[in-house]
Design a protein that fits this description.
Two copies of one chain form a homodimer. By secondary structure, chain A is of the alpha/beta class. Chain A contains nine helices and 13 strands. In chain A, the strands form three sheets. A five-stranded mixed sheet of chain A has the order 3-2-1-4-8. The radius of gyration of chain A is 20 Å and the shape is globular.
């Protein structure tokens, strides 16, 4: 049995796990990310890996990171939530742990995992869209991860969907992730509570009385109870999501969309309006099959599992 | 020397040509398309091919058609400007000409030609965008045509770029081709002439005096003379074009964009504002290389040449 280590490097925590060739996690550990410290982030990754290497015979290490990974899969050019700028992550970790290291964008790593062992099994062309704080993604085309010329493909969260729209963290305006993400869901709910507090009683109650206190889980809780205001927020965000999936279908015609990320855990609350909007918005919808939109199966560990498998197939 | 026949089936004419393995057209003929007659279109294609077969030793036939070609590359599911609906084009033409036939979307066929013998040579990942009446496209990813699960990929002209925007022939609103095409250029110029006739004197003069008379070539002529109104129209359409290319780069990160189609013949008039808008709109623009945006090299015959080459490599 071949073991590899997968590492998921996020803005708040670093998760490292030993994974077998069936995608099962044998042991996992988590540490806080010293996000403001580029060298410190390398050290925490390396320490975690070394600790696991002390207990397991591991052949290689795969690192999934939220950022622009270059086409050689060794350096991170830019990571908005970390302090890495043109950081030679693979080489530095290799020096510290003595095993081959590959680096992959975290959305790509998760897409690979879902396509091999999760909800995208059996699809030659599948797009993973992770709906969390923002929108992440990874594309499997013709059975392989598609990275683009410089490794920067699969960032549909930064496609402009509204001219002069909401300001995005990337510096542009109107990006899809400002309309179809967890942040968008919360923004809708807060705005609703500000404008129609009388209709947002349950949301405000859950949030401790102020619109600013409303969180994503509050909106999900209220929506599950049948609260009309919360359901409306899911409907709005789901419509933006489905419209964007229809736009991606016009470009890539995938066989399947897999939805992951925190917001997708709300299940049908998001899926139903997204599926409706997709079916209404797909160009040529009467003359073509409609790709299924399904929920991810591997949860928050998809990136770690995918990175470990990419290390095995390096 | 291996010869194949390429056929380009458009809404107004059918062009058929004998092409050698270097992409040179040896003989070409054109006939009007009986667009309202599905069977008649098959007959005109077959007659043209048979006539060429009488003079040349040809191994196979490639047909490029403006429409949704299925994944088996044999049938056209839907062609908005022809009367084909689920038409078994390859089988019917094969029966009539006695040679193997492959069918390809015309944008795909042109992209293949530009990537092998035209402006996209040497790029593993290149996107052809044809700016004509509408927007056509073809994607070469990892050195091969990308068709998607059902053969319907590469229709970025029907990505929504403006919510509740201009009505599109596909039935949706706000599609990119309503803002970044030849039709959009003419619509801008006519609107300009209606609202500010005093500033559109040259355009109106070229058009015989009425805004409705303004054509695409009129706008190009006036812009080449330095007319401010016409230049402004190119600037607006070029900005929409460049923004859309930046959005495609967020999704596909190609190594090169090739612009074809009638409007691209205006050269820098369109290219300069498109390049400026692309450089301003590309997400992560300070941390990544910018793909070059270049003009197509094979002109109106790209689809025919590409179809002939795809028949050779069937």
């Amino acid at each position: 049995m071949s073991l590899t280590i997968g590492v998921d490097v996020g803005g708040t925590k670093i998760a490292a796990g030993v994974v077998d060739d069936g995608g099962s996690i044998i042991e996992m550990m988590k540490r806080p990310t010293p996000a403001a410290n580029a060298a410190g982030t390398i050290e925490v990754i390396s320490e975690s890996v070394r600790e696991l290497l002390g207990r397991y015979d591991v052949e290689a290490v795969g690192i999934g990171a939220a950022g622009f990974v270059d086409e050689s899969r060794s350096a991170v050019a830019f990571a908005p939530n970390l302090s890495w700028r043109h950081e030679a992550v693979a080489r530095k970790v290799e020096e510290r742990v003595g095993r081959p290291v590959v680096v992959e964008n975290d959305g790509n790593a998760a897409a690979w995992a879902e396509s091999r062992m999760g909800a995208g099994r059996g699809h030659e062309h599948m797009l993973l869209i992770t709906v969390g704080t923002g929108i992440g993604a990874g594309f499997v085309l013709n059975g392989a991860l598609y990275r683009g010329r410089w490794g920067h493909a699969a960032e549909p969260g930064h496609v402009r969907v509204v001219p002069d729209g909401r300001l995005c963290g990337c510096g542009n305006r109107g990006c899809w992730e400002q309309y179809a993400s967890g942040n968008a869901l919360v923004a809708e709910a807060r705005e609703f509570a500000r404008r129609s507090p009388g209709a947002a009683v349950r949301l405000l109650q859950l949030a401790g009385g102020t619109p600013e206190g409303i969180t994503g889980p509050d909106v999900t809780t209220a929506a599950r109870e049948g609260d009309a205001a919360a359901l409306r927020c899911f409907e709005i965000v789901g419509q933006w999501l489905g419209q964007g999936l229809a736009d991606l279908a016009a470009v890539l015609d995938p066989g399947c969309f897999v939805l992951g990320g925190g917001v997708s855990e709300s299940g049908d609350l998001l899926l139903n309006p997204a599926r409706d909007a997709f079916a209404s918005a797909l160009t040529g919808r009467n003359y073509r099959p409609h790709a299924p939109i399904v929920l991810a199966e591997l949860g928050a560990d998809a990136g770690l599992i995918g990175a470990s498998d990419l290390a095995r197939k390096r």
